[in-house]
């Protein structure tokens, strides 16, 4: 499975335009609007979008942080979010029942886009993720939509999330004429990021293995230095998969993990243990997340590790790599890697503020957990 959804999903990216000041944004909002997206394409959008195709359903999360009713904008979308995280879909359905009538146009993978379905929707914009645009099939999808008059914007919430998330949220704010809300969220993100950067030590920190969807059957996927792996070095840790794997990481053997002997072990998972026994994320009870993480590290490749013996075991929702909520993952990892430096960092408090200030639909469940020492 491709990079296990970023690790299985190296996500579709949007916009490299930087918003300088609110009055500049207003001056630039006249239609048609030309922007530069996350892969450097100049894209002209003829009018304010009213019928949008989402190449991945996870980009509904981004829209829900700046739009009071993001579902009303949808002409069609991929069903990957519904399949992988059904609780989020159900939460949106309860608040916005019209989501049930939005046609599916694909499965979230670049090869799953139905051109016929997309053509029938009379959309005026498509938003795709970086991981989709990275593939040849994704490029073909972009070319096809362009050829039938549907502008495509690529956004990036996973490859270089600390840099691109606030940038692309500002871009979405421009596109949907929600500059103030997007700017508020971008500043919320940047303030928390700078707090971590200001305290991050320059000395050699603990060795961390971040393992995507660990499985007795499939083995482990060690997350590399991009995407979620960037959060390790942000807070002063060392990534066990930094030097001898591709930037996104890769499949590793039990021998690799045992030889690495990390000081800290971090697993990623999804609700219901779809890809692993570890169940975490939207709608998951905190006790279930902790219990299933404990079961996961009983695997033969993990149980002997020093990190497991010493109780330095943590877990988080894998799909932080697909949504602008990744700042919460950054805060959680900081408290795990250097707890003595980040005792004032509280991702639960940040999530509560997101729900209060930004979220059209509150995010509920267990998004990170730790085993007790």
TrEMBL record:
What are the Fe/B12 periplasmic-binding domain coordinates in residue numbering? 50-345
Q: Name one Pfam family in it.
A: Peripla_BP_2
For whether the record's keyword set contains Glycoprotein, the answer is no
Keywords from the UniProt entry: Signal
Q: Where is the signal peptide?
A: 1-27
Q: Which domain of life is it from?
A: Bacteria
User: NCBIfam families, from UniProt?
Assistant: PRK14048.1 (NF010649)
Q: What is this protein called?
A: Ferrichrome/ferrioxamine ABC transporter substrate-binding protein
């Amino acid at each position: 499975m491709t990079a296990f959804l970023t690790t299985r999903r190296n996500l579709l990216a949007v916009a490299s335009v930087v918003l300088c000041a609110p009055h500049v944004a207003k001056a630039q909002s006249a239609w048609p609007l030309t922007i530069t997206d996350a892969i450097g394409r100049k894209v002209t959008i003829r009018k304010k979008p009213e019928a949008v195709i989402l190449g991945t359903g996870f980009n509904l999360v981004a829209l829900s942080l700046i739009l009071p009713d993001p579902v009303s904008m949808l002409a069609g979308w991929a069903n990957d979010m519904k399949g992988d995280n059904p609780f989020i879909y159900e939460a949106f359905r309860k608040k916005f029942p019209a989501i049930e009538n939005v046609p599916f146009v694909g499965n979230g993978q670049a090869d799953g886009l139905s051109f016929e379905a997309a053509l029938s929707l009379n959309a005026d914009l498509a938003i795709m993720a970086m991981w989709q645009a990275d593939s040849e099939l994704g490029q073909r999808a972009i070319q096809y939509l362009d050829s039938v008059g549907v502008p495509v914007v690529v956004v990036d919430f996973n490859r270089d999330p600390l840099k691109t998330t606030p940038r692309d949220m500002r871009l979405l704010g421009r596109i949907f004429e929600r500059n103030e809300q997007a700017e508020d969220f971008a500043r919320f993100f940047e303030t928390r990021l700078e707090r971590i950067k200001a305290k991050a030590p320059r000395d050699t920190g603990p060795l961390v293995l971040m393992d995507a969807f660990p499985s007795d059957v499939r083995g482990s996927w060690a997350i590399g230095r991009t995407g979620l792996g960037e959060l390790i070095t942000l807070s002063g840790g060392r990534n066990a998969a930094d030097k001898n794997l591709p930037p996104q990481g890769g499949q590793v053997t039990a021998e690799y993990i045992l030889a690495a002997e990390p000081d800290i072990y971090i697993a990623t998972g999804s609700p219901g243990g779809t890809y692993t026994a570890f169940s975490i994320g939207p709608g998951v009870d905190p006790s279930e997340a902790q219990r299933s993480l404990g079961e996961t590290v009983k695997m033969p490749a993990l149980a002997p590790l020093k990190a497991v013996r010493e109780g330095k075991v943590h877990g988080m929702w894998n799909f932080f790599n697909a949504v602008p909520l990744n700042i919460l993952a950054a805060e959680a990892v900081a408290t795990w890697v250097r707890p003595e430096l980040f005792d004032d960092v509280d991702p639960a408090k940040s999530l509560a503020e997101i729900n209060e200030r930004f979220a059209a639909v509150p995010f509920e469940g267990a998004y990170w957990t730790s085993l007790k020492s």
